[in-house]
Design goal:
Order of helices and strands: HHEEEEEHHEEE
CATH topology of the largest domain: SH3 type barrels
Radius of gyration: 27 Å
Distance between the termini: 40 Å
Number of domains: 3
CATH class of the largest domain: Mainly Beta
Helix content: 25-40%
Strand content: 25-35%
Structural class: alpha+beta
CATH architecture of the largest domain: Roll
Strand order of the largest sheet: 4-3-2-1-5-6
Length: about 180
């Protein structure tokens, strides 16, 4: 009986208690990206001013560059993502710059002719190291200047049902209704 209930719960897509505990809660002052299924502008990024049980009040930048307050009905929201901060891409820039510089330097060195001091193979290694370091430096600077924002999707379900193992081999069934703040 217990196995049957677990299988039915898994097939029905009922989230476990750990997944529900990890869900991010919305509160005023958070930077969010809201996707609406019915609004004229489907995606808006801004700061939550207020949360009502049926409306999300968002402060965002309008088309003219001014600050606009918009009330978005909860029923029209398809997805909400919460900002988890901005970060640079310096490590990605380093990898791309170093790789491109090393490849270019190796090709340039290998395509040159042998001379008295270095063979074309030696020049390929010297070119790969030299241009790799130069490309890496340029890549770090370019990556540090490139900022991106991390987004975490907030579950859209207002009603959450959980099914989890309980004491004595029993199952725990729980309901959670999100009413907003």
């Amino acid at each position: 009986m217990r196995r049957l209930a677990l299988v039915i719960g898994a097939l029905a897509g009922i989230p476990n208690a750990a997944a529900v505990a990890q869900a991010a809660a919305l509160h005023t002052g958070q930077r969010v990206r809201v996707t609406s299924a019915v609004e004229a502008t489907p995606v808006r990024t801004g700061v939550i001013e207020a949360l009502d049980p049926d409306t999300l009040h968002l402060r965002h930048t309008g088309k003219a560059g001014d600050t606009v307050a918009t009330a978005i009905p909860m029923a029209s929201i398809a997805r909400v993502e919460v900002s988890r901060g901005r970060h640079s891409r310096w490590l990605t820039g380093l990898a791309i710059g170093m790789g491109a510089g090393a490849a270019g330097g190796a090709i340039l060195g290998a395509s040159s002719e042998d001379d008295l001091l270095f063979s074309s193979g030696d020049k390929a290694v010297i070119g790969a190291v030299g241009f790799g370091m130069l490309g890496g430096a340029v890549g770090v600077v370019a990556g540090a200047l490139t900022k991106s924002e991390r987004w975490e999707t907030v579950p859209a379900n207002r009603v959450t049902v959980t099914l989890a193992p309980g004491p004595g081999g029993r199952l725990k069934l729980g309901f959670r209704i999100a009413l907003g703040r």
